[in-house]
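Predict the 3D structure for this chain.
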Amino acid sequence: MKLLLSLFLLITPLLSHAEWEAVDENFLATVYIDVDRIRESSLYPQVWQLMDLKKMSTTGVRSRRALIEYDCKERKRRTLAFSSHIEAMAEGKPKFANATATQWQPISGDTVAETIFLRLCGEGKGHGAH
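Done. Predicted structure below.
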């Protein structure tokens, strides 16, 4: 576990030069994905996701970055690693980081998760989603 967290913290600076593409925006935040680092897979694609908050949260966080894995067949997602930052666009040293995979969660309709799911697993991608 410590090795995985160390590796996550080691690659964190590399992600500051990511090619972030906005996928959703509302009054609270803008959500981006790193289009240059999408890990294509027939069933389990992975993507880095960044939530850039409009204002600092009550916990002192301004942005959150996460590595998300999608299950194209079962229409689920889970977080593999994440970090919280006091600066916008996940800049600076993480305030908190965790590299423990979460449980699989179903993807609800009309959500940011569904938008990203359809981009990674949708028709024309050869994943057999839907």
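Residues 2-119 form a domain with the Lipocalin fold (CATH 2.40.128.710).
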